[in-house]
Every structure is written in C-alpha cells, then in structure tokens.
C-alpha cells in the first residue's frame, strides 16, 4: 500500500500546528519521520488515521482519495497506529487487551477464551515475547506493556504500520526482536512509518526519511545518501556540535550515602554514594531494579532494611514528602502518571511544585509566579503557545522539559533523573545535558538512570551497574566502555 499526504493544514483552535505538511510512503518501505519535539509528526499520523480531522489537504491511499473518520475506519483499511502513549487497559490481562473489541466467538456467539488464549500465545511466541498471556497489565514493566501494544497491532492484518517511538521503553533484546519483526513485515510488503528520536535506529532500519520542522514539510531523502549531521541540520536548521557537552569537574563532599538498602524482593544490599557536583550514572537492563532502588530512596517504595545518609546524617524517609524535605528531587521515568498533572497548565505545574518560591508569606504572588514560569519556558525552551497551555496537549519532549523545570526550581541537593531524555529530540537532549552539567557545577549531586549506554558513558563521572536487584559494579566513566557495562549488566565480572 502506498500513501500520499499533500498540503495538510491543521490548527488546534487558533494554533496552526501543520502547515502544508505531507509525505509519500512507498509500498513496502520503512520510512522514518523525524523532527524536533512538537514538529507535528504524531499529529500528521493522527490525521492519516482519523484520530484528528484536518482543515485542508489531500490524502491518497493507493491513489484514491480518503478521509477516515476515526481510527477504526483506518484500521479496516489496513492502517494501524501504535501510539507513543500506551493505549492499554491496565486492569485487564494481556490476552484481554490483545482481543479488546476483536473477541473470538464460538459457534454459539459466546467469547471463546480457549481460542483467544491460543492465538494470543501464538502471537507472543512469534514476537519472541515471554510474557504470560494471563498476566494483568499493571503488573508488567513499561517495556513489557509496550510489547503487548505492538503485538496487539500485529493481530490486525496491517498493510501500513505506524510506530511512534516504539523502542523508548524496550530493552536491548526486546528492541532486537522488534527489528526482526519489522524486517519480516517489510519482506511481506507491509509499509512502516517509523517515528523516533534515536538516530542510530533510523540509520540501521529505515529506507527513507522525511523531516518536518515547525509543522512544515522540509524534505524526503534516502538514508543511504545522507549523514546524521545532515538530518540534524534539516531538523533544527543548525548543527548542535558535540553530543555530550564537556563539564569542568569540581567534585565536593559526599551528599548521599546508601547503605545496605534492601527490599523484600526487588533489590538487595545496595551500597553507593554520590558527591556534590558528581553525576553518577546508573545502568542496567530493563527490570534490573534501577528504578525501584531510586523509588525507595525517594520514599515511594518500602524497604526492609538499610540506611540513607544525607550530608553525613542518617535520614528516615517514609514517604516522598520526607524525601523532598531532605532535599531529594526525582524526575520520573513515567512522566504521564507520576511526573506531570496533564490536565493542568505549564504554569500550574511549575507553580504547584514551587509554592514556597512563588509566595509571599503563604500568599501566591502573581509577579513571582509569572517570572518563574516565564524563566522556565525560556530556559528550558519549552515549545508551547503560552504558559496556560495544558500539559496534556504538549508534545512528549516538551512535557519532559516541564517536569525537569518543575524539579530544578525546587533546588534539590540531590536530583535523581530516571530516563530523562526518553522521547526527547536531539536538540532538546543537548539542552537537558547542559542543564545537568549546570546543576552539577552548582554542587547538586546527580543520579542519572538511563538505558541509553552512550548517554550514561557520555554524561557520568562514575557508573553504577545493577543486575537483578544487586549492584554488580561501580566504575569510573573514564575507564568504562559499552562492553564493560554490558558485562556487568548481565551479571558478568570485569577484571
Ligand atoms: N489535542 C491537541 N490540542 C492542542 N494542541 C495539540 C494537540 N495535539 C498536539 N498539539 C500541539 O501540536 C504540536 C505538534 O505536536 P505533535 O505531538 O504532533 O509533535 P511531535 O512532532 O510528534 O513531537 P514529539 O517528538 O515530542 O512526540 C505541539 O505543539 C502540540 O502542543
């Protein structure tokens, strides 16, 4: 199936989000859509699949003009969209999610659970996914939930598959499985639109690439004919220089020390420390317990034993209030449920987290509030229409910047960042790295949990590796490389 979108215009109220945008998807190709956060990639695909209606323009599917009224219509035509934000029902099981609205009925018209379970298992096996089909979604990791979402899309006989940041929450091995599945779909003639900020993946996987900037079509090129620098230049209109900015190190005294921290089942005997001005990278495979250790330090997960010291004094952290009071900030992995109030505006999110900074003796000062919010939007380059825009309508990367702004202004002593650049474009990534370096230079002790090895290696002073709930090594970044980290992450020893 081939698709042409031409001259697409779309405004949300008075905000023109797409201006004369479009692209051409050939039969059986993997086509990357790239652009900065907020460039309009997801909106263009939501228009194609009938999630949003467009103001003007043309969509041709196999040469015939179409206008799908809803995603079900697009799906019937064979165009399936796997959304960036998970679209699963957390209280239901894997198989119930897979068959939602597509239940198999037996000859009496009753749900045939046995047949559904069999088919579910077949699909999971084909994907090489080892998740029990009877498991409840809420018990799975974000990565596993994402795999179920992908399996769900594969149940439909798709001719065009649109994937929006599919690997953001996947482990290395899950990503490899997904790429194999994509290659076999392509071999069967399925066309794939691949939205990602991960340049390496795009260069390894895609045939052609279309760049959008500020809602406008910039160009379409064959991947084999261009370099990553070309892509950056087209995306943001300039080059960004070094990917990981250099920092002049001045490491101070110990700020955080964790001794023998253990949870009933998730992690055991965790010991480490972080100094003022230091970036401690935390690496490990998905599900290794990295996030859980950080959640425990932040008072979100009960521990069985262990001690936490801040500035040399033991602190008792029973809940997040205690953690914040002790000077800990936490930028979570899952910004949608933990980091951000999506139905509140940018201004409200920043204000609520910084009430003491924007108040005079307990009364909110509009002047102080407006100054702080304006500073946040400018400093973090949050792309928005104004400070009153609801966070739910911001693009993924810009939501992440609001979360970061929210915490940075609280001036924590210790800042834990859990996957802070997930779904963030390359320019904004660099801005986040600069912010991390600035905070470190101001003496904040930083813990950077990340699944992107180049990021951990490029940004950290030391790297702690976690495997199956245990710290398997803490190495100086200068002496580390990807192979060493992977060895530790899979439970091996390094000399
Ligand atoms: N429902 C909506 N209401 C109002 N504005 C919206 C809505 N959906 C998207 N937008 C705006 O449209 C612009 C484009 O957003 P979109 O999600 O398409 O960007 P994107 O290129 O996919 O970004 P990212 O890489 O961050 O996912 C953004 O400025 C966003 O705030």
Features:
alpha/beta; Rossmann fold; 2 domains; 6-stranded mixed sheet; binds adenosine-5'-triphosphate; ATP-binding
Question: What does this protein structure show overall?
Answer:
The protein has 495 residues and is of the alpha/beta class. It has 2 domains: 3-78 and 157-236, P-loop containing nucleotide triphosphate hydrolases (Rossmann fold, 3-Layer(aba) Sandwich); 254-489, P-loop containing nucleotide triphosphate hydrolases (Rossmann fold, 3-Layer(aba) Sandwich). The chain contains 17 helices and 22 strands. It has helices at 41-48, 71-76, 94-98, 113-127, 142-155, 172-187, 199-205, 228-236, 290-297, 320-325, 335-339, 346-353, 366-379, 396-408, 426-441, 453-459, 482-489; strands at residues 3-12, 15-25, 30-34, 56-61, 64-65, 79-82, 160-164, 191-195, 208-213, 216-222, 254-262, 270-275, 279-284, 305-310, 313-315, 328-331, 359-360, 363-364, 414-418, 445-449, 462-467, 470-476. The strands form 5 sheets. A 6-stranded mixed β-sheet has the order 6-7-8-3-9-10, with helices on both faces. It has a 6-stranded mixed β-sheet with strand order 16-19-20-13-21-22, with helices on both faces. A 4-stranded antiparallel β-sheet has the order 2-1-4-5, covered by helices on one side. β4 and β5 (64-65) form a beta hairpin. α12 (346-353) crosses α13 (366-379) and α12 packs parallel to α14. It is globular. The model has no long low-confidence stretch (mean pLDDT 88). Adenosine-5'-triphosphate binds at residues 12, 17, 35, 37-43, 383, 393-397, 425. Residues 12, 17, 35, 37-43, 383, 393-397, 425 line the site of adenosine-5'-triphosphate (ATP). It is a peripheral membrane protein. It is found in: Cell inner membrane; Cell membrane. One of its GO terms (biological process) is monosaccharide transmembrane transport. It comes from Butyricicoccus pullicaecorum 1.2. GO terms for molecular function: ATP binding; ATP hydrolysis activity.
